[in-house]
Design goal:
Blueprint: H1 12-31, E1 39-43, H2 50-66, E2 70-74, H3 81-88, E3 96-101, H4 103-106, H5 108-111, E4 123-138, H6 146-154, E5 161-164, H7 170-182, E6 187-190, H8 194-203, E7 208-212, H9 213-221, E8 225-230, E9 256-263, H10 269-284, H11 286-294, H12 307-327
Parallel strand pairs: 1-2, 1-3, 5-6, 5-7
Antiparallel strand pairs: 3-9, 4-7, 4-8, 4-9
């Protein structure tokens, strides 16, 4: 009867080769933390909005690079809480992420009572793109610039509405801030995303809106919207003729927003690292970068903030927003 082959009976070189081979095999298995199942990006906004545009651009590029599907799951409503719930309830296996504006942490907790703790249940993974907002209005209205817009609102007390793409976000808060600083009394109308809000601005049922550039720029260039000012520190490369709020005397309204990928604690570290790397790689591809730049977004692939730097910045912004909301006597709707 044959005896089992023991390590002691193998030549030393053969045993060493087998050991190294098994080690390499183990490393190879650990190197790919994700199966070939689809990667899901949950978006708390409807199709056609800024978040959706970014998710599909970046997701398609990631899918090509990774060789597996990356699907976008739109779950608008409740200030992003529906999308957040979908991510929280998903298995922590590295296959589900959230694409959302930073307001999810810095602003929305002041306007809703979320089921999540923004600083314990959310993990910022990668900043994708950002910009200031643009104040737009119905193109058929008389005002041609911000000064005329302010005069127009004052001449129609209580009759003018401004839209926001979601109550409690920067789109809403900037309108409240303009009300206070310019002595206006515009009424707020909240929506579930930019597309339906912009439709009503262009249709005339609401008159003005602070909106993200990707959704407004095509309509501005198409003559369907009039742009009055941007809230970024500098003029937008997509709208070089549109002044900043600071240029027009409203320096306290210099605000920017960014969108990023988020995870929840508990996902494998290797999976998070791989998704971050793939997202940054997608942003660096000319097709994605050029498209985002064309609609006014800024993309930082040269020196992107780390998740730790993002977490620190979010905490600082959260405190800053709280002070600003208090200054405009903000009350959740």
């Amino acid at each position: 009867m044959n005896k089992p082959l023991l390590a002691s009976t193998l030549p030393r070189r053969t045993w060493l080769a087998l050991t190294l081979g098994l080690g390499a095999l183990a490393c190879g298995v650990q190197a790919d933390p994700l199966s070939d199942r689809p990667i899901k990006i949950v978006v708390g906004a409807p199709a056609g909005g800024t978040a959706d545009i970014i998710a599909r651009l970046v997701g398609n590029a990631m899918s090509t690079s990774m060789g597996q599907p990356v699907v976008v799951d739109n779950k608008p409503g409740a200030g992003g809480a529906i999308a957040m719930d979908a991510m929280l309830s998903a298995p922590k296996d590295g296959h589900t992420y959230l694409l959302s504006v930073n307001a999810l942490v810095t602003e929305l907790p002041y306007s809703i009572k979320p089921k999540y703790d923004p600083f314990k249940d959310l993990k910022p993974l990668v900043e994708l793109a950002g910009s200031g907002l643009v104040l737009v209005g119905n193109a058929s209205l008389p005002p041609k610039d911000l000064k005329e817009m302010i005069a127009y609102v004052k001449a129609n007390p209580g009759k003018i509405n401004f839209a926001s793409y979601t109550p409690g976000t920067l789109s809403h808060v900037l309108g409240l801030q303009l009300n206070k600083l310019a002595g206006l009394d515009m009424n707020h109308v909240g929506y579930k995303g930019s597309p339906p809000a912009l439709q009503d601005v262009m249709g005339g049922s609401v008159q003005f809106m602070f909106d993200g550039l990707p959704t407004s720029v095509p309509n501005i260039k198409g003559g369907k919207l009039r742009a009055f000012a941007v809230t970024s520190p500098q003029r937008s490369h997509a709208l070089p003729d549109v002044p900043t709020m600071a240029e027009l005397g409203f320096k306290d309204m210099t605000r920017t927003a960014w969108l990023g990928l988020w995870a929840v604690p508990g996902h494998p570290d290797a999976a998070l690292k791989r998704i971050r790397e793939e997202a940054l790689k997608a942003l660096a591809t000319p097709a994605v970068r050029d498209r985002l730049l064309a609609v006014g977004l800024n993309v930082n692939t040269q020196n992107p903030p780390t998740p730790e730097q993002m977490a620190k910045s979010l905490q600082e912004d959260y405190e800053s927003v709280g002070a600003m909301l208090k200054s405009v006597n903000y009350k959740p709707e």
